[in-house]
Design a protein that fits this description.
The chain has three helices and 18 strands. By secondary structure, the protein is mainly β. A ten-stranded antiparallel β-sheet has the order 4-3-2-1-10-9-8-7-6-5, with no helix packed on it. An eight-stranded antiparallel β-barrel has the order 11-12-13-14-15-16-17-18.
């Protein structure tokens, strides 16, 4: 169960150099096809932090097409993870997991924002068997694609994101719904992960989050086992127990998708999405890439939006898509 103190750094072995805490917040301006991310990775035992800010408009197949990217590494690690400022111009104030206020000013003046996240429900804890009925079988399954990033501590919260964005001289109002998260624990960075992070949001009435394992067969991306997920309806959280996802891709970016999910009550939801803003995000982690986009969904007469990120370790991709990877079983 998640408590207010979980927005802060967590107790840790002080000699574990791999101990990592992260926070992530996506945001969008749908009418302008703008999709942005705020990410911080802190290694308090090493005294360093990484922060990556990225904002893109429309379909960007190549990193150089993304409107703004500011990755900063080896920043001094803050003393607190609930209230801090980094030397890249990002400040965060998070007294609890349902309340995050962020401001950012780029050193070169290319981008700035002030964003407020207000959670709609008690945060979801995938490490709590009372909230995640898939926890025991998931931890019992040996699969290198899972990684260890969420095994030790993690929460997810859906909420309302409001504020202002200035991007290369143009000003935008941010008023969207999506999810933020915080992870903590030992994390050895290896490039073997392949997990999809899927978000569907229709405001306070309905929101969904899914974490699903990925595989690549014959150069095509397929969505496989559900790791965990939940539905939020009017503030009430219901674990998801089954999910199916299919999608079409262009240059590894999903351009449309179909999602079918069933929660613990037996309620089944189906959504069809179309990407309105997509880009590859290489700068949040040197061993990974996130092929991600914001999708437009219909639910009855309601229109919603949500991030879908296919996160791959670079070695996972190389093993399946490089020349040596494709020929390793052919004796070449």
């Amino acid at each position: 169960m998640i408590a207010d103190a979980d927005s802060e750094f967590h107790p840790r072995d002080p000699v574990d150099r791999t101990w990592t805490e992260t926070m992530f917040l996506p945001f969008t301006v749908p009418e302008e096809q703008i999709f942005g991310n705020v990410y911080v990775l802190a290694r308090p035992n090493l005294g360093v932090a990484t922060s990556s800010i990225l904002v893109g408009r429309g379909f960007c197949a190549q990193p150089y097409e993304v409107d703004f990217t500011d990755p900063q590494v080896h920043l001094p690690c803050p003393a607190s993870f609930s209230k801090f400022s980094l030397e890249n111009g990002l400040s965060v104030d998070a007294p609890n997991p349902r309340q995050y206020d962020l401001t950012y000013t780029n050193a070169l003046g290319a981008c700035s924002f002030n964003l407020s996240f207000r959670g709609m429900h008690e945060p979801f804890d995938p490490g709590d068997p009372a909230q995640n009925p898939l926890l025991a079988p998931d931890r019992a399954a040996a699969d290198a694609r899972k990684g260890d990033a969420w095994e030790n501590g993690h929460f997810e919260a859906k909420g309302h994101i409001t504020g202002e964005l200035t991007l290369r001289g143009r000003h935008y109002t941010v008023d969207c719904y999506d999810g933020m998260d915080h992870s903590w624990g030992p994390r050895a960075e290896t490039g073997t992960r392949s997990v999809a992070w899927v978000s569907v949001n229709f405001g306070p009435e309905l929101a969904m989050h899914l974490a699903v394992l990925l595989t690549i067969t014959g150069g095509e991306v397929h969505y496989e086992k559900l790791r965990f997920g939940f539905v939020v309806e009017h503030g009430e959280v219901h674990p998801v127990v089954a999910a199916e996802i299919t999608a079409e891709h262009t240059q590894m970016l999903a351009i449309n998708n179909k999602i079918k999910a069933t929660d613990i009550r037996g309620e089944t939801y189906e959504f069809y999405g179309t990407a309105i803003s997509s880009h590859p995000w290489y700068s949040f982690n040197p061993s990974h890439v996130s092929y991600q986009g914001v999708f437009r969904y219909h639910w009855g007469d309601r229109i919603g939006y949500g991030e879908m990120a296919d996160i791959f370790g670079l070695d996972y991709l190389a093993e399946r898509m490089s020349w040596h990877g494709r020929h390793k079983n052919a004796g070449q």
